[in-house]
Amino acid sequence: MEDQITGSDAVAVRTTQTGTHLGSFFGIPPTGRRVRVSQMNFERFHGNQIHAHHRITDELSLMRQLGIIP
User: Fold this and answer.
1) What's the pTM value of the predicted model, to 2 decimals?
2) 70 belongs to a structural domain
3) Total tally of structural domains belonging to the chain
4) How far apart are CA 43 and CA 23, in angstroms?
5) Which of 4, 5, 42, 66 is the one with CA 20 to 30 A from 13?
6) Per the domain annotation, does 19 fall within a domain?
């Protein structure tokens, strides 16, 4: 987690996800490549439950790291 901003009923988080592509991923056969992907998550709460969730992932970078696109 790189950043977190909280409000009275919401939180925004910027993270970096890392891993190794070892299994099928949206129909893409395993490449064995290591990946590092930026992501932002926005959660809005109502009471003690998540009421809304939004996520932005750098999928272009992910596809490049997997060798799917140049």
Assistant:
1) 0.80
2) no
3) 1
4) 29
5) 66
6) yes
